Amino acid sequence: MAKRTKILAIDPGTRDMGVAFLEDDVLQDYGVKSVRRGPKARDLLLSLENILTRLIQEKQPDVIALEQNHFSHIKQNLLLTLTVAKLKAIAKRCNVPVEEYAPNTVRKAVCNNGNATKRQLAQVVAARYTELNAYLESNRRWRERYYQNIFDAIAVGLTFLAHQPKDDEWTDSNSTADR
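Given the sequence above, the corresponding structure tokens read:
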């Protein structure tokens, strides 16, 4: 039996960070990690380091899949850029490769539509993992935004899987040597 790929998928954020752990396409764990922020950026980065280091030690992933983010708010974008750089540095220090995907690439891989909404993305992910249906509906807007982090992280993990060559594709492309 082939070894399953362990994927730690992350939807980075400066307040809340969606995380999902998959073994191939089997969803093993998911959640939202709240990042503690202090008056200085280094407080945020230290909190991120603690969270990611613990996740890597617990889950021992083969790869980390990250969603690239593009915000228009300058201060938020700067903090997010620092956040992503810190996540990559921690992964490198722990010898875990990182794969990044643009949001439209994630939506295209999961929904077959690069212009799908976050809501549509969440619905497709929840249809695949029915235990997530409880997080789809809420009477509070903040809850929907909070749990969207989970759906985004899982979608990034699924995107990583979608971009991996299939075993039979590799075999087929190399079978010409037998001819």
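Residues 141-162 form the longest helix (22 residues). Try to locate this feature in the token string yourself.
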